[in-house]
Write a structure and sequence with these properties.
Helix content: 40-55%
Distance between the termini: 31 Å
Strand order of the largest sheet: 1-4-3-2
Number of helices: 17
Strand content: under 5%
Order of helices and strands: EHEHHHHHHHHHHHHHHEEHH
Radius of gyration: 22 Å
Number of strands: 4
Largest sheet: 4 strands, mixed
Amino acid sequence: MKYIDRLRYYDELYVGPATRRIEKYGWSVRGFGPLNYTFATVGHELHRARRGAVAPYFSKALVQQLEPSVQAMVDKVISRLEPFKGTGAVVNLVDLFACMTSDVICQYAFGAPYGYLDQPEFAPYWHKAVMEASEGSHFFKQFPWIEAGLRMLPPSVVRKIAPQLASLLNLGDMIRDKIFKVQADIKEGKTPEGQKSIIYELIMDLQLPPGEKTLPRLEAEAIALVAAGSMTVAHTLSVTAYHVIKNIKVFRKLQEELMSVTTDTPGEIKWNKLEQLPNFNGSSDPSDSSEPIAMGLSSFFDSHLRLQTPVGMTSVMMHNSSDYFPNPEEFDPERWLGPNAARLRKYMVAFSKGSRQCLGMK
């Protein structure tokens, strides 16, 4: 495995299919169980087919249709926070945002939220479970036979010998039940009201081969959608909230900007107005993300590396480079508003680039 620290090569390494086939480094994702979901798919052609089936549901146009659902979740967050007003009580925003984003992606994936926002203390076990599973993946990556062995055991046994995995097993049970519900509704001829869910659309997609609609495939894809669509956004919201509250100058500018479009009617501020606000957009840019590992080399590597050598780069190194971002550790939304903003955005790679870039970047 080779890491490249010459940042100008990023656009050479992370490219689209028209430039070069990109294959996932299998070792890098084997800590997450069977590689039968889009993110962990190693082969270029199979990944392209799986991504092509899911990608349309994350287009900007379709995501904007979720605005009423998102607004309903935001309204629920506000109602949950109201009792804390003026009490001096501490609210864990990480757990709160994890509940909100999880309910949003569950609504989109299955047609109904899981109800995390309704649970006491914002379901702290949920965020903890996903983080522990992520941490455990580093261990299972080194010892995949242990992970494979655990999967062969009854869930009741796994809960006893590895209690930290209990919440993750519960997530699997919940997702399996929701898939069963969608399948049962389809069998009974029921059509979802309003916007159809991702799982419903995948099952009904006549272009997908039967092998891509099996329960293990749908379950794996759904777990990936829920985990990626909840914790990444929750993390960004949590980090952003902290820095905005901490930095009074940023807080006041953002407050003034939002007040300029605020109305007396709750929920009337639409996203197409918010996305035009410069400070709002500067404050909400993702603070960090992980990068995919690519296999496949362009000509400038040929004299240095063997063919099929896994090569990767990391957003952490790029975003903390003072050569590209002056004062990289400072939360500075205005860096995205100045005359160099267009050049800087070339090096903002929280969503990666190329054929493996994040589906949810819109």
